[in-house]
Amino acid sequence: MRHTLDVRVSPYAYVAPFFLLFCAFGLFPLVYTAWVSLHEWTLLSETQEFVGLGNYTTLLADSYFWNATFNTLSIGVLSTVPQLALAIWLAHLLNRRLRFQTLFRVALLLPNVTSVVAVVVIFSQLFGRDFGIINWMLSWFGAGHIDWAAGTASSHVALSVMIMWRWTGYNALIFLAAMQAVPRELYEAATLDGASNLTQLRRITIPMIRPTIIFVVIVSTIGAMQVIAEPMLFGQSSGGGGGIATGGPDRQFQTLALFVYEQGFANSTFDFGYASAASWLMFVAVVLVAGINFLITRRVKGGLV
Amino acid sequence: MRLRYLTLIAVAFFSAFPLYYSVVVASRHNSALAQVPPPLLPGGNFLANVSRVFDTVPFGLALLNSFVVAGSISVAVMFFSTLAGFAFAKLRFRGRNAMLVITVATMMVPAQLGIIPLYMLMVKLEWTGTTYALIVPALVNAFGVFFMTQYLSRALPNELLEAGRVDGCSTWGLFWHVVLPAARPAAAVLGMLTFMSAWNDYFWPLVVLTPDNPTVQVALSTLASGYVNDYVLGLAGTAIGTLPLVAVFALFGRQIIGGIMQGAVKG
């Protein structure tokens, strides 16, 4: 009798910690965000007034919100598209018998072990206007001293370089794992038929690892829509002025997540209701963009490169 | 073939150079940065700069906090993930498949969107400003559960469990005497991955902690934002905050990479 009870109850007890923790610190905050977003609700106010969709209508008329949406999409495209193409190509290069295979893999993952704070501090120095090593190298080609953080396009490029540096190698390893499961005979047959390296990549590798490509595209999209630490730290450590969460003095690189943080925590009003409404719109945006990318990736057949 | 090696060497160079250059700057004096061409070799000022870091922010406390937070999260994640992974991989119960699917699906939830209620919850619990706010929500996560489920269903033979049952083990006895020892290689990899991501976590600690009781990343951001023109100071902090991880990675890189690639195949 004791034995049956043990067998029946134990499995639920063993998976319970995860589900309890997820409900308390994952699901509850997400759902409660919706409730907060329907109120005039600040950190300091005693009472919360129900305002219905008021926060949402204000938000849709807020030009800073649309500016942040544009910046998020722009940085997202600039960082994700070249990153995934490069990652597939690198994985393809590594998918051979190679000497120093482990050494190359370790080098590829090294940026991913570096914290985001370290990445932005280091790259803010590299992208420095007066003494940065990148401007120094560009000067060989006659380029002037670019103030990377000041412009909209240049700051988006700089932030995308940081994001790419940190994540390309990681994604390359994920692609490599999938490529190693592709049967060798396919490549041998293709080589006998005289197919070039690039043709093999397009006609064999990419179609065979499509589930992994879809997975990585979705995960990268969700990540790109939530970018916050990079623009926040870049705004602070590049010294261009502006508040700690404005993403530069002209909000030229404020992302959606940073906009939420500004409204909720960095503004003197600590406007939780407004920030929560922005969070929910951001959630809708994440689902939309991830869904669109899913459909696009699914439809593209073997012709990605 | 030669082109392949050259490309990979170039990529490895670009991966490592920013880290190398940060050490170069961190071991110089601020005046050296204005030189043209910029300095490309380390100088002799590293220890002096590091001691300035400790004078400017509570960096010793930050290191201690980060070790405690990342250490306890890693141990808890290894334990609870192995426990849940054992149930999902080897035990029969109603709703198992549905629960596993839900677990995997939660990995897709953009957790950052719930940050405001999460903060309100921490205020209610009076955990703001303390490391509880970092540790408790992170004690177990979906990736860990999925990772251990994958490993145990592949690597733990059913015969071993049946033999344990015949010997009169309870389910807990099986977990303790059979599953935990068998799970050790994967759990170690999971522990290292968890330690690295907890050590590097930035946004949530920034929201709930205060600058006088920081983690390493929060202390580094204080350096970077408060002393904008003092690159040497910021990069010296970055170097000592990053070196412990790079050392762990250099020692166990092969296992860590193996773990990431295994977790990915069926993801």
Task: Give the topology.
The complex is a heterodimer of chains A (305) and B (267).
Chain A (H helix, E strand, L loop, with lengths): L1 H36 L1 E2 L8 E2 L3 H7 L2 H32 L6 H13 L2 H11 L6 H6 L13 H28 L4 H9 L4 H12 L1 H16 L3 H9 L18 H11 L5 H28 L6
Antiparallel strand pairs in A: 1-2
Helix pairs in contact in A: 1-13, 3-7, 3-10, 3-12, 4-7, 5-7, 5-11, 10-13, 12-13
Chain B lengths: L1 H25 L19 H11 L2 H32 L5 H11 L8 H11 L6 H4 L6 H14 L2 H9 L4 H30 L2 H6 L7 H11 L4 H35 L2
Helix pairs in contact in B: 1-12, 2-12, 3-7, 3-9, 3-11, 4-7, 7-9, 8-9, 9-12, 11-12
Short structural description:
The complex is a heterodimer of chains A (305) and B (267). Chain A has 13 helices and two strands. Chain A has 305 residues and is mainly alpha-helical.
Walkthrough of the structure:
With 305 residues, chain A is mainly α. Chain A has two domains: 36 residues, no CATH class; 242 residues, MetI-like fold (Orthogonal Bundle). Chain A has a two-stranded antiparallel sheet. In chain A, strand 1 and strand 2 form a beta hairpin. In chain A, helix 3 runs antiparallel to helix 10, helix 3 crosses helix 12 and helix 10 packs antiparallel against helix 13. The longest helix of chain A has 36 residues. The relative contact order of chain A is 0.14. The model of chain A has no long low-confidence stretch (mean pLDDT 88). Chain B has 267 residues and is an all-alpha fold. Chain B has two domains: 80 residues, no CATH class; 160 residues, Orthogonal Bundle (MetI-like fold), CATH 1.10.3720. Chain B is built from twelve helices and no strands. The interface between A and B is large, with 94 and 91 residues.
